[in-house]
């Protein structure tokens, strides 16, 4: 298992497949506390990512960062809603710290920390506000805590923490984003952005486990 | 320095309408809409925003960008992060979309630099928030057109346009006053600010006080009175 540019391309393809399968569930979560377009917007974005990657042949010395930057700009151009620039900035900042052909465990930690930094900077959100930060932040922390383990174990720790973080948004009252318009009524629903974050990181693990 | 505006909206119709409205007041300013998703839906797209800004930079030295709702702002901020070459030439105004676009367009038409056009947009929110004109009118002169001891020249003129000082005549008046180079107060507000003129709500038949102070005040007041009395081609 090598976390190289080919892995990054498999990650994008896995993410597209996962989002396509979950798009109705994500949109239903968003319909409850947002404007009901998260699943379909992300599906459109990741379809475009796959098309873009297919149309861009991999160079022999392609870096992980080059793939992630393509993912970033394509999401920013095609998602349409706030998830576009938010995920786009996460992948853009991640791309800046992964301009190398292969990632070791510390590089995976750096990737996740840069992504969190990008999302919080762009969205001016912090943990506990019922946003995707509630999945990204524990993911980055779990990865940092697993440092010294194998790269796959670091990724797995991040994905598991993102999943738990998404579930933990259910009782929260939203104070950022469209869901904050609902105030107290936003409690009792899982945040769609936190859930899609968990799906994306699970896709990163699945792509790493592929032969 | 010439400044263009890029208006980023979720809706192509909304951006087009804002371009039309601002363009009526600023005929020489390049105004470019950047709206909707690539497939024509509601939303914003990095590609569309970047393309519009690049086209604007062909026509002007600087670009002020206005955006309507939260994720439009995020898309513009993302574009600014990616395009290093825009540094110092492209700025986002933290301003209400329509009022900001109108104020920025008029400031750009008046030849304002990048920071002045951005500031005009950002001040636009406050203009409509205040229900009463902010600046007190200078003291009334003893005789129309005569300077008082402290050099203030004041005349009164009646708005002849049936619809009052609406957007087009207000913009024309603000431009003319900015060109005079002498600060002129109209109805107690800064006559070079189209938004302050609009906020006067000066309907047809309303009498307005026009005043200026110091060198060139008399000629400036006469010119402004002449313009308002002329009805801007509508009376």
TrEMBL record, chain A:
Molecular-function annotations in GO: glycerone kinase activity
Top-rank taxon, per record: Bacteria
SUPFAM superfamilies: DhaL-like (SSF101473)
The DhaL domain, residue ranges: 6-206
Recorded GO CC terms: cytosol
Residues passing through the membrane, by range: none
BP GO terms, sorted: glycerol catabolic process
Listed InterPro entries: DhaK_L_YcgS (IPR012737), DhaL_dom (IPR004007), DhaL_dom_sf (IPR036117), Dihydroxyacetone_Kinase (IPR050861)
Keywords: Kinase, Transferase
Name this polypeptide is given: Dihydroxyacetone kinase subunit L
Organism annotation: Xylanimonas protaetiae
UniProtKB/TrEMBL annotation, chain B:
Membrane-spanning residues: none
Residue ranges constituting the HPr domain according to the UniProt record: 152-235
GO molecular function list: phosphoenolpyruvate-glycerone phosphotransferase activity
Known catalytic reactions: dihydroxyacetone + phosphoenolpyruvate = dihydroxyacetone phosphate + pyruvate
Key words, A-Z: Transferase
InterPro entries (UniProt xref): DhaM, DhaM_N, HPr-like, HPr-like_sf, PTS_EIIA_man-typ, PTS_EIIA_man-typ_sf, PTS_HPr_His_P_site
Subunit structure: Homodimer. The dihydroxyacetone kinase complex is composed of a homodimer of DhaM, a homodimer of DhaK and the subunit DhaL.
Function as written in the Swiss-Prot or TrEMBL entry: Component of the dihydroxyacetone kinase complex, which is responsible for the phosphoenolpyruvate (PEP)-dependent phosphorylation of dihydroxyacetone. DhaM serves as the phosphoryl donor. Is phosphorylated by phosphoenolpyruvate in an EI- and HPr-dependent reaction, and a phosphorelay system on histidine residues finally leads to phosphoryl transfer to DhaL and dihydroxyacetone.
Name of the protein in question: Phosphocarrier protein HPr
Organism of derivation: Xylanimonas protaetiae
């Amino acid at each position: 298992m090598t976390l190289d540019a080919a892995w990054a391309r498999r990650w994008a393809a896995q993410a597209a497949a996962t989002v396509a399968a979950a798009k109705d569930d994500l949109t239903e979560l968003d319909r409850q506390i947002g404007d009901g377009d998260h699943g379909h917007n992300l599906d459109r974005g990741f379809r475009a990512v796959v098309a873009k990657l297919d149309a861009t042949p991999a160079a022999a010395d392609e870096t992980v960062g080059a793939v992630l930057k393509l993912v970033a700009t394509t999401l920013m151009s095609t998602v349409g809603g706030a998830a576009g620039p938010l995920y786009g900035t996460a992948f853009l900042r991640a791309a800046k710290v992964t301009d190398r052909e292969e990632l070791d465990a510390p590089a995976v930690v750096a990737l996740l920390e840069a992504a969190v930094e990008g999302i919080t900077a762009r969205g001016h959100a912090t943990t506990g506000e019922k946003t995707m930060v509630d999945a990204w932040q524990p993911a980055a922390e779990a990865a940092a805590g697993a440092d010294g383990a194998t790269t796959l174990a670091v990724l797995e720790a991040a994905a598991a923490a993102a999943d738990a973080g998404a579930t933990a948004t259910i009782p929260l009252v939203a104070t950022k984003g469209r869901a904050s318009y609902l105030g107290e009524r936003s409690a009792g629903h899982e945040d769609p952005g936190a859930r899609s974050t968990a799906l994306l990181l699970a896709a990163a693990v699945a792509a790493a486990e592929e032969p | 320095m010439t400044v263009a505006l890029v208006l980023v909206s979720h809706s192509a119709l909304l951006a087009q309408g804002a371009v039309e409205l601002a363009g009526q007041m600023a005929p020489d300013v390049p105004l470019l809409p950047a709206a909707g998703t690539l497939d024509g839906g509601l939303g914003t797209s990095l590609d569309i925003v970047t393309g519009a800004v690049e086209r604007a930079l062909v026509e002007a030295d600087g670009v002020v960008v206005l955006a309507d709702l939260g994720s439009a702002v995020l898309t513009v901020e993302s574009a600014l992060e990616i395009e290093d070459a825009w540094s110092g030439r492209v700025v986002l105004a933290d301003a209400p979309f329509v009022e900001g676009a109108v104020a920025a367009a008029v400031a750009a038409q008046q030849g304002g630099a990048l920071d002045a056009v951005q500031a005009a947009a950002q001040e636009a929110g406050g203009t409509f928030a205040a229900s009463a004109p902010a600046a007190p009118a200078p003291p009334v002169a003893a005789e129309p057109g005569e300077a008082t001891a402290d050099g203030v020249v004041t005349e009164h003129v009646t708005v002849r346009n049936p619809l009052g000082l609406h957007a087009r005549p207000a913009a024309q008046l603000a431009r003319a006053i900015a060109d005079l180079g002498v600060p002129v107060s109209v109805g107690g507000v800064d006559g070079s600010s189209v938004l302050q003129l609009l906020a006067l709500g000066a309907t047809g038949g309303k009498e307005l006080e026009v005043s200026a102070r110091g060198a060139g005040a008399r000629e400036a007041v006469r010119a402004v009175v002449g313009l308002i009395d002329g009805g801007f081609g509508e009376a």
